[in-house]
Design a protein that fits this description.
GO molecular function: ABC-type transporter activity; ATP binding; ATP hydrolysis activity; ATPase-coupled lipid transmembrane transporter activity
Keywords: ATP-binding, Cell membrane, Membrane, Nucleotide-binding, Transmembrane, Transmembrane helix, Transport
Largest sheet: 6 strands, mixed
Main location: membrane
CATH superfamily of the largest domain: ABC transporter type 1, transmembrane domain
Helix content: 55-70%
GO biological process, one term: glutathione transmembrane transport
Strand order of the largest sheet: 6-9-10-3-11-12
Membrane topology: Multi-pass membrane protein
Strand content: 5-15%
CATH architecture of the largest domain: Up-down Bundle
Radius of gyration: 34 Å
Length: 575
């Protein structure tokens, strides 16, 4: 599908404002032509000393046309910009709605700075599509046709000259601009994205670059990228000015042509001299409406390039695409069923999960253990619809996740991932991320449960939690999850950075709160798993053992060997 079809669909949803803006633009354009034509005719008439009422009528008409032009131009600007902002709002909302579920995969394909440039810059540049690409040709054609019909009533040959001028400004000049524009197509935007990428990485990696002595080298790269961007911007600006200059040249050429042809027709007796100034003024005015045509190719290619980058980022980007309507109940514990699920990361030679099937009863407690890279965390990503299975089906409460709206899954789940994000603000701000209301007493109580009673709700948290230790980050993430009311707990290494005593204290409160909920715990530590209803042992994307703690220990298989190694390590540490 053509990338700009996305914009066309968004424009259809704002068709009322678009029609009103086109109507306002046409009235403003034709009122301007008539206004200046009347002014020229008025000037010519004064030479022949017409009756006073003629001058009064013409003067009043000029004033009325001036008011009409101003009012219609205001309406055109109002409705066209309102339509543009509404279209941008729809595009942003739809793009972010499509981006969120595929975010993990996006970071595997694009650097964070480039992704930021796409989200902000490319979406923003699409505002020019309606105002600078779709709108001007419509107004130019309507105003020119009306002017040509008006002019033909006085002189057929001057009307033909207007037609030539319209073709030159609406087709020839944009075509010349387009030929030159292809040479610099997309380079400004690509260079801006490159600079944004480099700046983002330098900011994120400033400390490491400083420590390893690479900061000066990266600063030099930033300077070179900035210089290239400025150079490309200058080239693009010069090209646009060249197109505008050609348009001005054609405008004055046609106006001089009207003057010369009109003089010849007057001498030949085919045109009354009183109409010459009127026709010249009409020529000067009508071409003002075609000024935007000179820069149309540049904005068109810019919009196409931006739309292409957005559809590359989110291939299913569509402002009218329907979302699954299924929803999970927040009040019920959730059952989980995986049937023949296989998942393979893009570019990987082996699947992360291979033909995996399991069933977790509602209200049960399940632990998943296994070596790093065995596919444990991938299961949580699939359950949250952050990734899509390569094969197989996942069902929550006997409903396929394909039929469930992502938002309902997220609202029903209390999630703690290995890396939790923290925003710059206070402890209170980072706890109150959901829409639920909590009192300060509730917030302080949950901080006490996760052993963060020493923290105040007004204590500052830096971006990404830079002023918190790894253990404090995990406990704050657990506190955030414990404030939610979901009945599905998805915990990925939630206490890996905590000491044993703190871990047991935090888990005790967590298990008490999740007593009747479905809980899925991914962990490397094997202590405390006696309370789990079942334990899944994974290796290389498959479940190699399954059972309760006592059953797995009696089998003396994979889990038994892992537990034995852990006990030996603890014994060595104690020596």
């Amino acid at each position: 599908m053509n990338e700009l079809a996305v914009l066309s669909k968004a424009m259809l949803q704002e068709r009322k404002d678009i029609v009103l803006s086109i109507l306002g633009g046409f009235i403003a354009g034709i009122a301007g032509v008539i206004l200046f034509s009347t002014s020229g005719y008025l000037i010519s008439q004064t030479v022949f000393a017409p009756p006073l009422y003629t001058l009064i009528v013409l003067t009043s008409l000029v004033k009325l046309l001036g008011l009409l032009r101003a009012a219609s131009r205001y309406g055109e600007r109002l409705y066209s910009h309102r339509a543009t902002f509404s279209i941008l709002s729809r595009l942003r909302t739809s793009f972010f709605a499509k981006l969120i579920p595929v975010t993990p995969g996006i970071f595997n394909k694009h650097r964070s700075g480039d992704l930021l440039a796409r989200i902000v810059g490319d979406v923003e540049s699409l505002q020019h599509y309606f105002l600078r690409v779709a709108y001007p040709p419509i107004i130019v054609i309507m105003v020119f046709l009306a002017t040509i019909l008006f002019t033909s009533a006085f002189s057929f040959w001057i009307a033909c000259l207007f037609v030539l001028g319209m073709l030159a400004t609406a087709l020839v000049v944009p075509a010349i601009v387009l030929l030159g524009q292809r040479k610099i197509h997309g380079r400004v935007r690509q260079q801006r994205a490159l600079l944004s990428t480099e700046v983002t990485e330098v900011l994120y990696g400033f400390r490491d670059l400083k420590v390893y002595g690479q900061l000066a080298q990266r600063e030099q790269q930033l300077q070179e990228a900035s210089t290239l961007l400025v150079t490309e911007q200058q080239r693009a600006a010069e090209h646009l000015l060249r197109g505008q200059s050609m348009h001005a040249f054609v405008t004055f050429l046609i106006s001089w042509g009207v003057l010369a042809l009109g003089a010849y027709l007057i001498m030949d007796g085919a045109l009354a001299g009183v109409f010459l100034a009127m026709l010249v003024m009409a020529a000067l005015t009508v071409f003002e409406e075609a000024t935007a045509m000179a820069t149309l190719p540049a904005y068109k290619q810019d919009s196409e390039h931006a739309a292409t980058r957005l559809t590359e980022t989110v291939p299913t980007f569509d402002v009218q695409s329907s979302q699954p309507s299924g929803a999970l109940s927040v009040d019920d514990a959730v059952s989980i069923e995986l049937s023949g699920v296989t998942f393979q990361y893009e570019g990987e030679w082996r699947p992360a999960l291979r033909d995996m099937s399991l069933h977790i009863l509602p209200g049960s407690k399940t632990a998943i253990v296994g070596p790093s890279g065995s596919g444990k965390s991938t299961i949580i990503d699939l359950l949250l619809k952050l990734r899509t299975p390569t094969a197989g089906d996942i069902r929550l409460n006997d409903v396929s996740v394909k039929e469930l709206d992502e938002t309902s899954i997220w609202n029903s789940a209390n999630v703690v991932l290995q890396q939790s994000h923290f925003f710059r603000g206070t402890i209170r701000d980072n706890l109150l991320l959901n829409e639920e209301e909590h009192t300060d007493e509730q917030l302080l109580d949950v901080l006490d449960k996760v052993q963060l009673s020493s923290k105040s709700l007004t204590d500052m948290v830096y971006e990404k939690g830079e002023n918190l230790s790894d253990g404090e980050k995990q406990r704050l993430a657990l506190a955030r999850a414990m404030l939610r009311k979901g009945r599905l707990w998805l915990l990925d290494e939630p206490t890996s950075s905590l000491d044993y005593v703190t871990e047991q204290h935090v888990l005790q409160h967590l298990y008490a709160q999740a007593a009747n909920d479905t809980l899925l715990l991914i962990c490397h530590r094997l202590t405390g798993l006696e309370e789990m209803d079942q334990i899944l042992v994974m290796d290389q994307g498959k479940v190699v053992e399954m059972g309760s703690y006592s059953e797995l220990m009696e089998q003396k298989g994979y889990f038994y060997e892992m537990k034995k190694i852990e006990q030996q390590m603890i014994g060595e540490d104690g020596l």
